[in-house]
UniProtKB/TrEMBL annotation:
This protein's name: Thioredoxin peroxidase
Organism: Blattabacterium cuenoti BPAY
Role: Thiol-specific peroxidase that catalyzes the reduction of hydrogen peroxide and organic hydroperoxides to water and alcohols, respectively. Plays a role in cell protection against oxidative stress by detoxifying peroxides.
Keyword annotations: Oxidoreductase
Similarity annotation: Belongs to the peroxiredoxin family. AhpC/Prx1 subfamily.
SUPFAM superfamilies: Thioredoxin-like
Thioredoxin domain: residues covered: 3-178
Source species, domain of life: Bacteria
Length: 210
C-alpha cells in the first residue's frame, strides 16, 4: 500500500465554515504553506456521538496548538450547511457551538479519497452499466501532521468507534519541532523536555548509558 509519509500533502479547495459562523467557498490548504504547521483531521459525520468529543477536545487545546504555530483543520463529507447548523447547536444538545477552527466540506469525497481515509467503495455491474456504493462513503478518523513546507510527517487512521488522543497529537508536534530545531531524533515515549538522541552510534550509546 502506498503511504503519504514524507510526501507533499494533497492540496484542496473546498467550502468550509470559519470561526463557527462564516461559510466560504474557496478555503485551501495551500494558504498555510510556508507559514504554519497544519493538523488536518477527518471525522465521519456531523450530528453523531464520538465526533463531537474529538472536535471539542481539539478546541479545548486550541491555545496549545496556536503557541506551536499549528493550524487545526477538520474535514468530513457533510455539506458546509450541515457543518454550519451543527456549529449553532449548544454542546449540551449534541452540537459543537464554540468551535472556531475551520471545518471543511468534502461533499465530493475527493479530499478523503486523496488522503486514503474514504471508507466504502464503488463497484460496477457485469455489464458496466451501473455503479453502486458498497458501504458508506464517509471518512475514517484520519489525522495528518503537515510541516511548514507542505509535507506529511505523521499520520494515523482510526476505525469509526475509536476516538483519538489529542495529547498524542501535541506530542508528535513537539517531537517534529524539536527534531527540526536540534537535529536530534526522539525515542519511544519521548515528551517535551526529555532527553533525545543524536543520530549516531555514540548518540545511542550515550542515551542508553545515561
Amino acid at each position: 500500500m502506498n503511504t503519504l509519509i514524507s510526501k507533499k500533502a494533497p492540496n484542496f479547495t473546498a467550502s468550509a465554515v470559519l470561526n463557527g459562523k462564516e461559510i466560504v467557498s474557496n478555503f485551501t490548504l495551500e494558504q498555510f504553506k510556508g507559514k504554519k504547521y497544519v493538523l488536518l483531521f477527518f471525522y465521519p459525520k456531523d450530528f453523531t456521538f464520538v465526533c463531537p468529543t474529538e472536535i471539542y477536545a481539539f478546541q479545548e487545546k486550541i491555545q496549545d496548538f496556536e503557541m506551536r504555530n499549528v493550524q487545526i483543520i477538520a474535514v468530513s463529507t457533510d455539506t458546509e450547511q450541515s457543518h454550519w447548523a451543527w456549529l449553532q447547536m449548544p454542546k449540551e444538545k449534541g452540537g459543537i457551538h464554540g468551535v472556531t477552527y475551520p471545518i471543511v466540506s468534502d461533499i465530493n469525497k475527493t479530499i478523503s479519497h486523496n488522503y486514503g481515509v474514504l471508507s466504502g467503495n464503488w463497484i460496477c455491474n457485469d455489464n458496466h452499466e451501473e455503479w453502486k456504493a458498497t458501504g458508506e462513503l464517509i471518512a475514517y478518523r484520519g489525522l495528518f501532521l503537515i510541516d511548514q513546507d507542505g509535507f506529511i510527517r505523521h499520520f494515523l487512521i482510526n476505525d469509526f468507534p475509536l476516538g483519538r488522543n489529542v495529547h498524542e497529537a501535541i506530542r508528535m508536534i513537539d517531537a517534529l519541532q524539536y527534531y527540526e530545531k536540534s537535529g536530534e531524533v526522539c525515542p519511544a515515549n519521548w515528551t517535551k523536555g526529555k532527553k533525545a538522541i543524536k543520530a549516531s552510534h555514540s548518540g545511542i550509546e550515550n542515551y542508553f548509558s545515561s
